[in-house]
Structures are given as structure tokens and as C-alpha cells.
């Protein structure tokens, strides 16, 4: 076998183990009884250590050296070597005992978070979250020393390869300057318009689920390679060719679950559209989380809050819940789905206020990783940040610093990819609609195939063949341009469209 073949076979086995971990992680969040938490933590820790051991196999360095000298490899194979070397370099920075300790701490903390969130009990979660944070600092330090990065940038690099906080700081500072004034303009514009009534519940969960499944089918979700379930925090997970999504239901507001389903379906379409030929290889994985979040936010925000989508969806909503009257008309529903309102919950936020939620989390996690703020002060700092950025103060920690699962589950460095993803989504959707003018008219008829086909060709099927900026340039003609996102917000919400 050639050195490249050895690497491909080896990382195919790593992928098989990752698939098993992915299904167990989904089960943790969606199905597992709480009494199984300790046993599951042991199992997950063992699997994580085994995967880590495979990823740092000493022969990988020799194989890489030989394969990189092979002139007969094509562009996909070359890109795969780049991704394997990136993964190997990062993983060799970590000792196995740190991987095991982190895995166990995360499993325990995530289970504790569910009850703490329900009870609004930050103090009860604090010792478990402190352990996760301490281990994430150690991981960031170890990776940072290997990569020549700060601990935070080393953690960010796991989710956004090549991403750096210096660049994100500039982007987010610009948004933090732009958004407060723009938000006030939008709120004033809304206040001058006649108020429209809203659909009144209760909305039965089984009817909400049926509507969600119908929308997933319209988008092109492959139910033979996935499923829809319920979890405390909506997510997309599972394994290669087994892409599972979750949502959560509120009988007083069907829009929350529906938008959650649409968001996670955007993630799932990306996963289901990755190239089968390289599915088990690092090059076949999604190109970082800003691209991944762009696909979920493109579906949820760009496409499914458009007038075209509401034209298609309004009759289905009326049929699903037996709705009638002005509140169920297209114009009223569009006003509902494009209403801007400063709220407490990130996943329910509108496009205009959503970035403020992310900027807050990004600034806080940077300070916590750098040990510039005691974790015990997180609730106070969170509430102060919400007041400064959005003008609201959460009434309790359940609607404040306990609302997201990311930190308890070890996702430190993930949060900035949401707003990077929102900016990327605006740029990709603009490029897609310019290239395929039938995209919006087709969405109005419930036909998403022009949009999904363009995404399959330009984003999904490309996986990690290119670096992030290179992929975005290939797809849209330029690297990330925050001005596109601002222009989109002005058109949709500022009365310029």
C-alpha cells in the first residue's frame, strides 16, 4: 500500500469511531435516562481516549512525509493530507489523560446543566462547569503552545480553522457599533406601522411536529439518513449518513420549534450533501463552523423569513393548526417572522438582535479562558452585558447564562462562528440568488431545489477541499465582507427594500 492509502485507511477507522461517539452523544441529549449518566461518562471517555490514540499514532508522521512527496496525488488527496496534518498536529499536543479527564467532566457537566437550567440554579452547576473550564484552559494552553497561538485562539481553531480573535474582534466591534443605533431605527419604524394580530395557541405538539416534518421534506432532508427528535437544546448531530436533528416545543408559540427545525435542517442538508467518496476522510468533513452555521442561518433567516417563504408556508400553517382570520394571513405572518424585539433567548432571536447575543458570549468566554474573570461572576457579567448590548436584563439565570449547552458540553471557542455564519449566509444567499434568479420564486411555490442544488454544487460537495476564505471566494467571488450582511439587514428591516 502507498503511504496515502495507509493514511486513508487509518483515518477511515478514526471516522468509524467518531460515528459511534456521535450517536452516543445524540443519545445523551435526546434519549438517555439520567440514571445512566455516570456509566455513559465512562464509556464516552474511553472512546474519546481510543480515538485520540488513533489520531496520534506515531506512524502518521512517517506516512504524511512520504505521501506529501508523492507527485501522483490529485487535489482532493492533497487537501486531505493538509487536513490530516492539521488534525495530527493539534491532537499530538494533548496527553491522553487530559483527553480522558475532559471527556468525563463534560459528560457529567452536561447532565447537571439540564437540571440547573430547569431550576435556574447556577450555583449548583458552578463546581462542574468550573472543572470543564479548567480543563479547557489546559487544552487551549497545550494546543496553543504547539500552534503558536493564545489558548483562546487554539480553541477557536478547532471550530474555525485559521480563525483568529484579532480579526473577529474587529468585525464584532464594528457590528457592536452599528447594531444598537440600527436596532432603534428598526424599532421606531415598526412602532409607526399598524399592529397586526398574532396566532393564538395552544398549538398541540403533535401538530407542530407534523408541520416541521413537512417543512423538512420540502427542503429536501433525506429521512432515510436521519430523524427528528426532542432535546433540551436544539442541535444537529449523529454520524455520517445518519444525520439527526432535534428541536424543542412550546405550546404557546409554534414559531420557536418551527424555526429551530428549519435551522437544524440547514445544518443537516450540509451534512447529507458532503461527498460520499470522501465521507470518512478529514477532507470530506464540513469546512469549519462558520460555514456550517451559514448553512443553518441561510435556511432559517435568509430563505425562511423571506416573503417568498411565507407565501408558501402560510397556507400550510393555517391547515396545520386550523387557523383563520387576519392573524393567519400572509402579511401578518410575515410581520411576525420579521419582527425585531430585544429578548433574552439567543435561539429565538431575530436577525437584527441575534449578533448581540453572540458578541456577549464571545467576549465572556474569551475573558474566562484568559482567567480575567472569576466564573462565579458570570451571571452578573452576563446580565450587565445584556443590558449594555440589548437593553434588557434576564429575570433569572435560566433565561440568562444557563440557556446554552455549549460551555457545559465543552464548546469553548464555538460561539463567534454563529455571527460569522450569519454574515457568511447573507453573502452566499446573495450570490446564489444572483446566479439562479428562480430561487426566490421557486421557494414561493415550495420548491427549494434551485437553492439546495446551488448549495450542493458550491458549498456542500466541496467539503474541506478549500480553506474557508478560498471556498467563500470560489462561491461568491470574494472573501467574507461584513458589508453584505449590513446591507441585507437594511433592506429587510430598515425600509430600504
Automatic annotation (TrEMBL):
Cofactor requirements of the protein? Zn(2+)
For biological process, the GO terms are: proteolysis
Q: How is the cofactor bound?
A: Binds 1 zinc ion per subunit.
Give the enzyme's EC designation: 3.4.17.19
- What family does the Swiss-Prot or TrEMBL record give for this protein? Belongs to the peptidase M32 family.
Q: What is the name listed in the Swiss-Prot or TrEMBL entry for this protein?
A: Metal-dependent carboxypeptidase
Which PANTHER family does the entry mention? CARBOXYPEPTIDASE 1 (PTHR34217:SF1), METAL-DEPENDENT CARBOXYPEPTIDASE (PTHR34217)
Instruction: Tell me the active site.
Output: 264 (proton donor/acceptor)
Q: Which residues bind Zn(2+)?
A: 263, 267, 293
Catalytically driven reaction(s)? Release of a C-terminal amino acid with broad specificity, except for -Pro
Tell me the keywords, alphabetical order: Carboxypeptidase, Hydrolase, Metal-binding, Metalloprotease, Protease, Zinc
Organism, as annotated: Bosea vaviloviae
The kind of enzyme this is, by top-level EC class, is hydrolase
What PROSITE patterns does this protein's entry cite?
PEPTIDASE_M32 (PS52034)
Pfam families membership: Peptidase_M32 (PF02074)
Keyword check for NAD, yes or no.
no
Instruction: Describe the function of this protein.
Output: Broad specificity carboxypetidase that releases amino acids sequentially from the C-terminus, including neutral, aromatic, polar and basic residues.
Q: Name one GO molecular function term.
A: metallocarboxypeptidase activity
Amino acid at each position: 500500500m502507498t503511504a496515502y492509502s495507509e493514511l486513508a485507511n487509518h483515518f477511515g477507522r478514526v471516522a468509524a469511531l467518531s460515528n459511534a461517539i456521535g450517536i452516543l452523544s445524540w443519545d445523551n441529549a435526546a434519549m438517555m435516562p439520567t440514571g445512566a449518566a455516570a456509566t455513559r461518562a465512562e464509556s464516552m471517555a474511553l472512546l474519546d481516549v481510543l480515538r485520540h490514540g488513533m489520531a496520534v499514532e506515531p506512524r502518521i508522521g512517517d506516512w504524511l512525509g512520504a505521501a506529501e512527496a508523492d507527485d501522483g496525488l490529485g487535489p482532493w488527496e492533497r487537501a486531505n493530507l493538509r487536513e490530516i496534518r492539521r488534525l495530527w498536529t493539534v491532537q499530538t499536543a494533548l496527553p491522553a489523560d487530559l483527553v480522558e479527564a475532559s471527556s468525563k467532566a463534560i459528560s457529567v457537566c452536561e447532565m447537571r446543566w439540564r437540571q440547573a437550567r430547569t431550576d435556574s440554579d447556577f450555583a449548583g452547576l458552578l463546581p462542574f462547569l468550573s472543572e470543564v473550564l479548567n480543563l479547557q484552559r489546559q487544552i487551549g494552553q497545550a494546543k496553543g503552545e504547539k500552534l503558536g497561538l493564545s489558548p483562546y485562539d487554539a480553541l477557536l481553531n478547532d471550530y474555525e480553522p485559521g480563525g483568529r480573535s484579532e480579526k473577529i474582534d474587529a468585525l464584532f466591534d464594528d457590528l457592536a457599533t452599528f447594531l444598537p443605533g440600527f436596532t432603534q431605527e428598526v424599532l421606531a419604524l415598526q412602532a409607526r406601522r399598524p399592529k397586526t394580530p398574532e396566532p393564538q395557541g395552544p398549538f398541540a405538539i403533535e401538530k407542530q411536529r407534523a408541520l416541521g416534518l413537512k417543512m423538512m421534506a420540502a427542503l429536501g432532508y433525506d429521512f432515510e439518513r436521519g430523524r427528528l427528535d426532542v432535546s433540551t437544546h436544539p442541535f444537529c448531530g449523529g454520524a455520517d449518513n445518519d444525520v439527526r436533528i432535534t428541536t424543542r416545543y412550546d405550546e404557546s408559540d409554534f414559531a420557536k420549534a418551527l424555526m429551530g427545525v428549519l435551522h437544524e435542517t440547514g445544518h443537516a442538508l450540509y451534512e447529507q450533501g458532503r461527498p460520499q467518496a470522501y465521507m470518512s476522510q478529514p477532507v470530506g468533513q464540513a469546512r469549519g463552523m462558520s460555514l456550517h452555521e451559514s448553512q443553518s442561518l441561510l435556511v432559517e433567516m435568509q430563505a425562511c423569513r423571506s416573503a417568498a417563504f411565507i407565501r408558501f408556508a402560510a397556507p400550510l400553517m393555517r391547515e396545520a393548526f386550523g387557523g383563520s382570520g387576519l392573524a393567519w394571513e400572509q402579511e401578518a405572518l410575515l410581520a411576525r417572522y420579521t419582527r425585531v424585539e430585544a429578548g433574552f433567548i439567543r435561539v429565538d432571536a431575530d436577525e437584527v438582535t441575534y449578533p448581540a447575543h453572540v458578541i456577549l458570549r464571545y467576549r465572556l468566554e474569551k475573558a474566562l479562558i484568559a482567567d480575567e474573570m472569576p466564573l462565579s461572576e458570570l451571571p452578573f457579567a452576563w446580565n450587565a452585558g445584556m443590558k449594555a448590548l440589548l437593553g434588557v436584563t434576564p429575570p433569572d439565570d435560566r433565561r440568562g447564562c444557563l440557556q446554552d449547552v455549549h460551555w457545559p458540553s465543552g464548546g469553548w471557542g464555538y460561539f463567534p462562528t454563529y455571527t460569522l455564519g450569519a454574515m457568511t449566509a447573507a453573502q452566499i444567499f446573495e450570490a446564489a440568488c444572483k446566479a439562479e434568479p428562480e430561487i426566490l420564486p421557486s421557494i414561493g411555490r415550495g420548491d427549494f431545489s434551485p437553492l439546495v442544488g446551488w448549495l450542493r454544487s458550491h458549498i456542500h460537495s466541496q467539503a474541506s477541499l478549500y480553506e474557508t476564505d478560498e471556498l467563500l471566494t470560489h462561491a461568491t467571488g470574494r472573501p467574507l465582507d461584513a458589508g453584505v450582511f449590513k446591507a441585507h439587514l437594511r433592506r429587510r428591516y430598515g425600509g430600504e427594500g
